[in-house]
Structures are given as structure tokens and as C-alpha cells.
TrEMBL record:
Its main location: membrane. Belongs to the LptF/LptG family. It is a multi-pass membrane protein. Signal peptide: none annotated. The gene is lptG. This is LPS export ABC transporter permease LptG. The keyword Transmembrane helix applies. Keywords: Cell membrane, Membrane, Transmembrane, Transmembrane helix. Pfam families: LptF_LptG. It comes from Rhodanobacter aciditrophus.
Length: 354
């Protein structure tokens, strides 16, 4: 059985890698054509190529489920076309055993994709975003965050104009809304984090509001107690899909502590966590069709069927995920429902073919 596993596994693995390479190539070419209009003296072709190359690891992890589906259709379909699958069945090898041999390399690739999504693609994607901003003139080279950012911490609403790569905040405005009333507005030229719960504000102007008066004063320095961390500020400026699982979980917990909506970050977290299960569900559907209606189909028909199934699955995943953001459905179920439906359909078809 070891030789059989390797033979079927190698066929599927090579096909999945080929499909992933083609999908990445098409994505790279289409994105390049779309972004080429940005090229100028500062934002050169080399910079654009660097940005697109940095985003490839994230695209790879994203395309793995669909690549697994189409690759399995191609790999097993090639064996079915040469009657090798028929010979295996005639030799007494059950259908589920052939399917298991095909699933093994997919599980390995899926786990590799999960590691890429955690340790490689977030760093590359965030660097690509920074390079894109720097070279297009939207950020100064000494700053990691510009353009302003709003955050809620404890009872305060905070606006920060910019932050450098060391975590120093510039032009920070703190709105104290204790008991749902605006108590004070405090503006500081800079803020430096002293420890996990304190910041040192410098060059401060403040206005305090009372029932019968408004008091204004200035201070050179003041300690500000807050749960705000420079890491949270950075994470707030990044799109959820460019964050790692650890960063998504960390920032979602912070938003939850502040009583803010965590839906987008939870949705992306569960989407990445369940990608291996998505790949497995799609592969099981692919195996059931190879032993069914696509057994004697041409390679083009198999690829076309794989694209249709993949599009249907991805759209279902997107729709149920977005529906969970505007309903009482938890993001976990928004991601899990289409995956479980796909898995159940694949297992049912496999049982029917057996």
C-alpha cells in the first residue's frame, strides 16, 4: 500500500502544484496589468514587481483549496483515463483507500499553507503595503503609519495623526467620554509608551468641560493611563486579510475588551483556520466526481467542472461569511456551514459511488 500511496499521491501533488503555479501566474499578470497605470518616476516597474512578489505567499495560501480541487480532478482523472483506477478497483482496493491516498498530499499542502498564512504572508503583505505607500508618496520613510487613525480605549476615544516605526505617536487627541458625556479634550504633540498601561504625553493642551464653565491649560508632560498599545495602533491600519492568526486573535480580543465590533477580524481568523478543512472538503467532492460523472470526461471538462465547483464554493463561503456580519450568526458558523455542507455532499456522493 505504501507504493500505491506514493503513486497516487505524487500524481495528485504534481497536478496541484501545477494548478497553483498557473493560478498565481494569472493573478500576477492580471494584477500587474491593472496596477501598471500607477508607474511613474518614483513608483517604478521594479517597485511594482517587488510589491506583487511580496503578495504572492498570501495568494498561494488563498488559492490552495481551489488548487487542491482542480489538481485532484486532473491527477486522478489522468489515472482514470488510462484505466489505472479501474485496475486498482479490480485488484480489490476499495474506493475510500484510493481517496485516502489522494488526500494525504492535500493535507500536507494545507498545513504548509496554514504555516505560510501565520509566519510568511503577513510579514510579506505588510511590507508590501508599506513599500506601496512609501513609493507612491503616501507616507514618509520614517513613519510606519500616516493619514490618521481612530481608536477606542477604555472610556477614551483617541485620534492619532501619525506613528513612527519605534511606536512614538504624533499629534494625539484624547476625548474623555466618561458616563457618556464629554469630560475633556486633550491634545499632545507626542506620546511615548512607558509601560503596558502608561504613556508619557508631551506638550499638552487640554480643555475640561463643566456645567458652568470650560477650563483650558497647558502642560509640558503628563502621564496617561490607557490599555492602548502601539501594536494595536499598527494593527488597526492593516486589512484583516494581511494579518496573521496571532495578530487577528490579539486585535479581536482588544476590540472585544473595548466593546467594539470584532466581526471582520473573527471572520478572517476562522477563514484561515479552516482552509485545510476547505481543501479536504473540495478534494472529497473531486474524488466523488472522478468515480462518477467525470470518469470518462476529457481533461478540459474536468478543469471546467473544477473551476465551477470552486467558484460556487468560494461564493458560498463569501456570502455566508458576510451574512454573519449583519445577522446574529457567529462568524465561526458563517465560515463552517458551507464547508460542512460541501464535506457532507462529497461524503454522500462517495458512499453512493462505492
Amino acid at each position: 500500500m505504501g507504493k500505491l500511496d506514493r503513486y497516487i499521491g505524487n500524481s495528485v501533488l504534481m497536478a496541484v502544484c501545477l494548478v497553483a503555479f498557473v493560478l498565481l501566474g494569472l493573478d500576477f499578470a492580471i494584477t500587474f496589468i491593472d496596477e501598471v497605470k500607477k508607474i511613474n518616476e518614483q513608483y517604478t516597474t521594479a517597485i511594482l514587481m517587488e510589491v506583487l512578489a511580496l503578495r504572492l505567499p498570501g495568494k498561494l495560501a488563498e488559492y490552495l483549496p481551489v488548487s487542491s480541487l482542480i489538481g485532484t480532478l486532473i491527477g486522478l482523472g489522468a489515472l482514470a483515463s488510462t484505466s489505472e483506477i479501474t485496475v486498482m478497483r479490480a485488484a480489490g482496493i476499495p474506493l475510500w483507500r484510493i481517496g485516502l491516498s489522494a488526500c494525504k498530499p492535500i493535507l500536507l499542502l494545507s498545513l504548509m499553507g496554514l504555516l505560510i498564512a501565520e509566519f510568511v504572508s503577513p510579514i510579506a503583505e505588510q511590507k508590501a503595503n508599506l513599500v506601496d505607500k512609501l513609493q507612491s508618496g503616501r507616507a514618509a520613510s520614517s513613519f510606519s503609519i500616516t493619514g490618521g487613525s481612530w481608536l477606542k480605549t477604555d472610556t477614551d476615544y483617541v485620534y492619532i495623526d501619525a506613528a513612527d516605526q519605534d511606536g512614538t505617536l504624533y499629534k494625539i487627541t484624547i476625548y474623555d467620554r466618561s458616563d457618556d458625556q464629554l469630560k475633556s479634550i486633550k491634545t499632545a504633540k507626542t506620546a511615548i509608551q512607558v509601560n503596558d498601561s502608561e504613556w508619557l504625553l508631551q506638550d499638552i493642551k487640554s480643555s475640561s468641560f463643566y456645567e458652568d464653565r470650560i477650563e483650558t491649560n497647558t502642560q509640558k508632560e503628563e502621564r496617561w493611563t490607557s490599555t492602548l498599545k502601539s501594536d494595536y495602533l499598527y494593527l488597526s491600519t492593516q486589512e484583516p486579510d494581511s494579518l496573521s492568526l496571532t495578530q487577528l486573535n490579539q486585535y479581536a480580543q482588544f476590540l472585544q475588551q473595548q466593546g467594539l465590533n470584532t466581526g471582520n477580524y473573527e471572520l478572517e481568523f476562522w477563514n484561515k483556520v479552516f482552509r485545510p478543512l476547505s481543501s479536504l472538503a473540495l478534494v472529497i467532492v473531486a474524488i466523488s466526481t472522478i468515480f462518477g460523472p467525470l470518469r470518462s470526461s476529457t481533461m478540459g471538462a474536468r478543469i471546467f467542472s473544477g473551476v465551477l465547483i470552486g467558484l460556487l464554493f468560494q461564493n458560498s463561503l463569501y456570502i455566508t461569511g458576510r451574512m454573519s456580519l449583519v445577522s446574529s450568526l457567529p462568524p465561526l458558523l458563517g465560515i463552517l456551514i458551507p464547508i460542512l455542507v460541501c464535506l457532507a455532499a462529497g461524503l454522500y456522493l462517495l458512499k453512493k459511488r462505492n
